[in-house]
Amino acid sequence: MDLFEFVAKEPKPLRRELKMNCKKCVFFSLIILMSLSITSVFADRDDFNSTKLGEKWIWDNPAKDSSYDLKEKPGWLKITCAPGDHDIWDVRGGGPAVLLEAPNNYTFETHYVTTIKDNCSVGLVFLNEDAVGNAKSPGPWCALFTQPGNQLFWQHAVGVDKMQANVANGNDAYIKVEKTDKNWKFYYKEKADDKWTLIIDDNYDIGKKHYAGLMVKNWDPGPEITGYYDYVETSWAFASAVEPYEKLTTMWGHIKQK
Questions:
Q1: C or N: which end of the chain has fewer Cβ atoms within 10 Å?
Q2: How far, in Å, are 26, 31, 119 from residue 19 at the CA level?
Q3: Where does the pLDDT of residue 254 fall: very low under 50, low under 70, confident under 90, or very high at 90 and above?
Q4: Closest Cα to residue 184, out of 244, 104, 98, 100?
Q5: Cβ proximity of 104 and 205 under 8 Å
């Protein structure tokens, strides 16, 4: 006998009480399901609202002289590249990066703020598995970097500075990549509520296994350079840096101000 059959056979006063309790159970069940659905919406986003990176993030610092920080500006990931030559060119080089293992097809977006200087770049980087942690690796890599003059450069190991796009503000930008097999589409917007604008569309083979992330670099040599990253949002779920008791703060990250 199920619950509703039981209710139907009881006296009317008890039946009304049981029906009310059933309705309450259904109501609270819906509330729980809605809460779970809200949580899942943000399961692929990290707003850097913790004091440490999530377990799936990789801190890749081949030169061992750069740093990252989550405490100076709460809600932002700060990556600082030490003065010198930390380029990524014909080999991996020494540019510090924070990385996630990536699938073959995905989207990956971020919002960064920096004060760009000569011989310095801030942006997105994508490294073949052989290039992670190996400054001398010629393994495939590609990147979208800002440079002085409000320009974003599409670079890769066989076509450095292959394409570039002029943008409204290279020091404070939202950038996104859509990767489908060997095709890379990069988008830009100046403000959070703006529509994405396609700026780069190109093909490049980075290999079967690679990592996507955030990089700050300099060269020839360059001064110290810092990039602040507001969030990372991807089309695949990853372990958020937010601790369990802080998970509600990820929702606040969507409306937080600098």
A1: N
A2: 11, 19, 72
A3: very low
A4: 104
A5: no
CATH code of the region 45-252: 2.60.120.200
Of 209, 213, 175, 212, the closest CA to residue 191 belongs to 175
pLDDT at 40: 36
CA distance 37 to 43: 10
Question: Once rounded to an integer, what is the mean pLDDT over residues 158-185?
Answer: 93
Pairing assessment for the beta strands 141-147 and 172-180 based on DSSP bridges: unpaired
Q: What percent of the chain has pLDDT over 90?
A: 63
Q: In the predicted model, what is the mean pLDDT of the chain? A: 82
In angstroms, the CA 72 to CA 213 distance is 21
Q: Which residues lie below 8 Å from residue 110, measured CB to CB, with a gap of 6+?
A: 124, 174, 175, 176, 214, 229, 230, 231, 232, 233
Token digits of residue 58: 């990789």
Domain-wise residue ranges, the chain: 3-41, 45-252
Distance of CA 165 to the CA centre of its chain: 21
Q: Which of 12-26, 43-57, 200-214, 236-250 has the highest mean pLDDT?
A: 200-214
Query: Environment class of residue 41 by beta-carbon count within 10 Å: exposed (0-12), middle (13-18) or buried (19+)?
Result: exposed
